[in-house]
Amino acid sequence: MIFNSLPFLLFFTVVFFLYWFVGEKNVKVQNWILLLANCFFYGYASLKMLPVILIATLLFYYIGLKIEHAYDNPDSEQAEKTGSRWTTFGIVIGVGVLLYFKYFNFFIESFISLFSLFGLQSNWHTLHIIMPLGISFFTFRLLAYVLDVNHGKQHAETDFVRFAVYVSFFPCILSGPIDRPQFIKQLGKLRVFRFETAQDAVYQFLWGLFKKVVIADNCASYVDAAWNNIDGSDASTLCLAAFLYAFELYADFSGYSDMAIAVGKGLGLKITDNFRTPFFALNIADFWRRWHISLTQWMTDYVFMPLNLSFRKNGKAGIIMAIIINFLIVGMWHGDSWIFALYGLYHGLLFVPLILSGAFYQMPKIQVYEHLNLPKPKDFGRILLTFLLVTLGFILFRADSLTHFAQYLTSMCKMSLFTMPLVRSALTRTLLFTLIMIVVEWLLRDKPHPFAVQNHPLACRIIYIYVLIFCILEYAGDAQSFIYFQF
């Protein structure tokens, strides 16, 4: 059940009216409605895997209570040991679930390949393992919870329904954003319907839907055609496909995030932001502060900072080691393939010049000509360079293997590089809509989202909605699954 589908529209309509009319004056009723909606939504997508998330939720709920109970012990030394044991147990279970369902066959195949290099035969076999949808997202929620309870940043939740809603919140369960345990606090308060908030949610949802079906899905048609016929495509076609894939990935994932945030907003709940105009980043560190923000912040707090603290005595070399390990994990989080590890390593290495120059911790701001509202040449060059580096990384991200990646790069460097690709009306329209998205996001880059227009005149708002709906209905591409569902 995806956001841009009739079943979801019917599902959300039922949930919306039950939530606001039946649960209008009772927070417990609201939470129960959300929990049942979460179970139905996830069961509709993967009924066989529903017990996995329910059991994991029960187990981590219990672990959180045991950690907090341990620190109630007046013997602080014993309390720390007991709390650490339960925290370690939670981490082992959380990481173990992720490794088993997502990486077990990958490790088996890697060992078999390694042994074969030395002429050794292995009778190991892979298993037919069905990966639960959204496992990378809900396991990170669970791990964040036990770590925050252990560090005293979060009280263990005593209300199981609230905790279960946090873990399985249906707008975010399949592709994020990855909310932190502080989200639970919202579930302890009665949500009150506000027309202005609901109106803003509609605008943001339509903007996300526009990016998904008009930009991402149309880009996908051209990109897939190029990737499926690398040898038969000229270099200019492959270069254009590489750039379009960057926009496809962004429009697809940020479009999903916008819709998820809007759905949460429609239920009176704030979901963490996940994108902040990443293609206007001035360097690779700035890019990751703007791209998949919830994952970046999670990795920074729970992986990079502890590693950086451990390696601090090694100076800049220690920071480099910490950042590379961090991004190797970021890469592997995306999938069970060495190509994702290389993708993470690539981004980790891009940080090295920033660390050596001391620019790593700086928060750059784009310098613009005030009257023209355009970036100054130096910053425009930095934006363009960062985009080119990111696009190159996305070619690696899209490839099935290192050989596939090398084949694409080699074909991009053919002598036909400067020939014009065949321009079709559908491609021209896709490029035009992509340009519109870039311009709109640049002009409204300081807003929470480009269509935060509640203060605009009513006539303008009606026009905005009409134009978005018309484009969605008239120019939607062939339906494509959300890219991040596979992770």
Overview of the molecule:
The protein is mostly helical and 487 residues long. The chain folds into two domains: 6-193, no CATH class; 196-282 and 364-486, no CATH class. The protein contains 18 helices and two strands. The chain has helices spanning 6-22, 27-46, 50-71, 76-117, 135-150, 160-168, 183-187, 195-227, 235-266, 284-290, 293-310, 316-333, 338-350, 352-357, 377-398, 402-412, 425-443, 458-475; strands at 368-369, 374-375. It has a two-stranded antiparallel ribbon. A hairpin with a 4-residue loop joins strand 1 and strand 2 (374-375). Helix 3 (50-71) crosses helix 6 (160-168). The longest helix is centred in the N-terminal third of the chain and has 42 residues, at 76-117.
Extended strand count: 2
Low-confidence segments, ≥5 residues, pLDDT <50?
none
Number of domains: 2
Task: Tell me the Rg in angstroms.
Answer: 24 Å
Q: Tell me, rounded to a whole number, the average pLDDT.
A: 88
**How widely separated are the two ends?**
16 Å
Structure classification = mainly alpha
Give a brief description:
This protein is mostly helical and 487 residues long. It has helices spanning 6-22, 27-46, 50-71, 76-117, 135-150, 160-168, 183-187, 195-227, 235-266, 284-290, 293-310, 316-333, 338-350, 352-357, 377-398, 402-412, 425-443, 458-475, and strands at residues 368-369, 374-375. Strand 1 (368-369) and strand 2 (374-375) form a beta hairpin.
List keywords for this structure.
about 475 residues, 2 domains, 2 strands, about 65% helix, 18 helices, two-stranded antiparallel sheet, single chain, mainly alpha
